[in-house]
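User: Before I run my own analysis I want an independent prediction to cross-check against. Here's the chain; please return only the structure tokens and, at the end, one sentence I can use as a sanity check.
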Amino acid sequence: MIFAGRGLIIGSGVSGRGAAYALDKLGVASTVTATEFLPPNMSGYDFAIVSPGVKHTHPIYKYARIHDLPVFGEIGLAATVNTKPVIGVTGTNGKTTTVEMLGSIYAAAGTKAVVCGNIGRSFAAAAADGGYDRAVVELSSFQLLQSSPLKTHIACITNIAEDHLDYHGSMLEYRHAKLRIADRQTKDDYLIVPTKFNLVGMSGNPTLLYNGKDCYEKEGKLYVMGAPIMRTCELAAVGRHNVENALNAALAAYVDGVKPEAIAEGLAKFKPDSHRISLVGEYDGTAFYNDSKGTNIAATLAAVDCMKGSVALIVGGSDKGYDYDNLFRGLPGNVRAVLVVGANCAKILDCAARMGYNRIVPCMDLSEAVSVATAGGFDNVLFSPASASFDRYKNYKERGEAFEREVKKLFGSV
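Assistant: Structure tokens:
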């Protein structure tokens, strides 16, 4: 067995706890640490498992090189325990929705599938428990860096846009991390990518499928491999981006043998959770939308594209290493004001000035941003930060809940 002796798990979040649970089920002892420093008794460990957020600068990597200590990721651990086909989804945007759609499709088909990974349940813990026929796994770029020996039977890369450059250092490295989802794939496996996707650097040898060619929308219907699946209007998830997500999920399920009727049923039943262009309420003629999950520019522009009428857009949070030129370059004319909060406020303001965008207002916090936006008489107020949440919040969910509280507080509904 690869994992024998005693393991050191670095990171006490979902991945770390899941790794500890899986090792315990295997009868392997482990210690979980959240510290940035190594424990004093490193000689007592036979391998290490790092959580996705552990940076390359962590001392575990230097120690491992010097002392020949094997280092794995939680996904790598899961891959050694898992015995069922893996459907893996990565990408800058849409991966969570796509895996959730797949979960709904498999449920409609009567196939027992576990939805796990970056979505909130540890793949290692799920694999240790077993009892499923398919593992539908959301895979972040961080997780893919430590995913060996993972092999996906069906993989999907939804898209690649600027994100996490503070971690990867460049778009090239970020893209290479995403391509690792195809590592160890053969011609008997499938990789779904957008049409004209850049595959330079891919090490696997999968059968390629293209969103736009092998699945597409035509005259108000969704098609997969030439077969009609359903009318677009039957999708419960609205927006052009969700059409693309549905096509990716439908194609993945179809090549896995799921019948079109079950695909249509699963997609018709699926509704995105809160914090994804979710209507908080309508007050005094203004609709307030929570899209706290919009943590990068591409996601925010997709959310804006769903808005009808004038929009006040609230952005800002913790920085991810990219500039915001593409945000201001891509904003449509119905965005009449951009309100900025968070730790990267100054950076966004500087970018707006450089791009000649003057409909922008700095705000101290979400409370002020909601008040200013409300006073403008816009048809919509959209909170889609194009930034991470870690400057003030534990995660995007906590941030979204804070936005909703401010809206309801303003209108006396809290």
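Sanity check: The radius of gyration is 22 Å.
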